[in-house]
Amino acid sequence: MMMRLGWVACLALAAGVSASAAEVDHLTGMGSPLTDSADRINARANQHLARALADLNDSGHRCPGTAMSERTLYKELRRFFANHMKGQLIKDILSGEVGADLRAVTLVDSIYGRWQVTDGAILGARAIGISQSALSPLVRIGDTYVGVDKLEHMFGMGWIYFESRYIEGEALDRTLELGVMMERFTLGGQRLLGTGVFSYGDLAANFNGMRFWNHVLQKSDDVLGKGHNAGPYVRCENGKWVLARPIDFRNYVDASMDETQNCRRFASQGGLDKSLEAMRARGYPAVCPLDRALAERAYRKYDVVIPNDPRKTTIASWIFNLGGHGLLEGWSGLEGLKPSPPRE
Fold it and tell me: Is 196 part of a structural domain of the chain?
């Protein structure tokens, strides 16, 4: 398990996944509503999808349906669907080209504004606050406000999950467990090189990214059940890749990615205390979930028992925290991250 974790962590770092280890502040500026940007983002995503297929076909690539041919397809798609360092869609959103309505918050103005490096290196280093690596802007997709970083997690870590589960055939619970370990030790949930924030919203985005990549060719039913199948987006006809169905990110983005509903944990007591103090001082609600009924509806969507898991855990128990803002526990910080049944 630990050897495999090390391999996956190295792969993620090499792929630039860690570049999406940003946080988001849902509370600052929450009185200013955002317009729904789903249609604009979907339109640009589908333009990029069409461009990727055209480039492949024009290059003389043929699609007989072999594993190598599919790998070539995925590699081409990841030019457009990746983090803000590599993926053109995220670059387009952040640059304003898509025309999405974004809410950007500077680090000093955020609920993390009083953090020190000992609370979390990235959020505690003031100079980093001017870059996208510290705080991600918010965007509204459907009825959900999410950080653009959640789309980055979908494309980047979601691809790692997809490889683990669907290409390598790893058990789903092991794939989800690897995601927890990586969030804890190589992404946000450690304070020496990360942000010091363990984000369950990131885990939910990773999981939904796995669903997104599975839907590209839809060779397997959706992990949540056939009723959640959204693909295939691409199919092979006469040796060429063609569009089969448009992408709609409303199939993936929901309250599980909203960190006011899916509660964070903090790597340091100081980080937790300073964040809560900032919320209260500015009159922001310091309770989580902010809307328990909404959060519990989202939880139930993922309250699916994982097949062949001897512990009989559910997907929700790996990616959701309804227990409020809290501290990572124990020397490893994993004691409080074990999957648990739904809260009453």
Answer: yes
